[in-house]
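Let's practice the habit of predicting before peeking. Look at the sequence and jot down your guess about where helices and strands might fall. Then scroll down.
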Amino acid sequence: MNLFCIGISHQTANVETRERYAHGCAEEILRSEARCQEALILATCNRVEIYGCAEKPIATDEMLRCLQRSGEVEHADSFYRHDGEACAQHLFRVVAGLDSMVIGETEILGQVKKAYAAARESGSAGPLLHRLFQRAFRVAKHVRSNTEITRGAVSVGSVAVELAGKIFGDLRGRSVLVLGAGETSERTARALNSRGVTDIRVSNRSFERAEKLAALVRGRAVAFDRWTAQCREIDILISSTSAEEPLLTPEVLVPMLCDRTDRPLFIIDIAVPRDVAPEVNGMGGVYLYDIDSLQSIAEQSLAMRRQQMAAAEKIIADHVADFAARFGGSDKAALSLNVRALAPES
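Done guessing? Here is the structure:
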């Protein structure tokens, strides 16, 4: 079996390029059209990756045509590919937070677990990917238990809040609207709350989810069809939804700005695809930051965690060697894997 990973991330492409692939294609298409026997798609705000295995090697361009759903392959030079042991090593680094924008962040582990669970439920992740991802989860636990890589680590959401703090100084007394109620939004809202923000408003398509998140941070929920009106009152908008098209455009924002005399509106868009049209940044009185803008801030807090990377890389290298020895290379190992696929890894 040929194990491989093909992906694009914040390290190889800007947000404008990444958002083109944020919704990718169905894993079933990779199995039927690209002849993958197993496939798993991991899509986050910072990366879109395909993990797969097949009896015969599959060309990268063939996989990208499925991902793009078009005949012509674009941005091929922004994609990376890892095969065999290199694929295992890459995944282990991803789940351990070593490949993240914020080194050591823990949010990625939950995102990988969700992608794995969905692929297992659909039947797209079979014996080999099952063993690979189960080992990856062990690696993440091992790295975090035996290094200080996560000490003081921050998520993308908390970096966004740090940016707001640099803009306003003391965030107490500021009004913030969090658009979206997913995991990233929850981390962002909690980070705001820890900085003393008491006026946190949460809006989401599911009002029930907005209410739940608002209750966690002693904020208030706003009906999704009324969130734009909040732009007349708030100081900061932090947006992280799964919308496929921009929710906030110049046309939507113009009427709101008329009511904001000498009060700039700071917008931090951490969604991919972006929730806010880039043209908004050219409007007077509006300052827009997207997820790529957060990278420079994240880099400022890496010194201590970088000191722990060598220890983490050693743990990962040991796990890669053991995984390859158990399941890579020989037909006998592959057969053993198929027979024992559903058993928990020892």
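How did you do? The beta strands are 2-9, 38-43, 47-54, 80-83, 175-179, 199-204, 220-223, 236-239, 265-269, 286-290.
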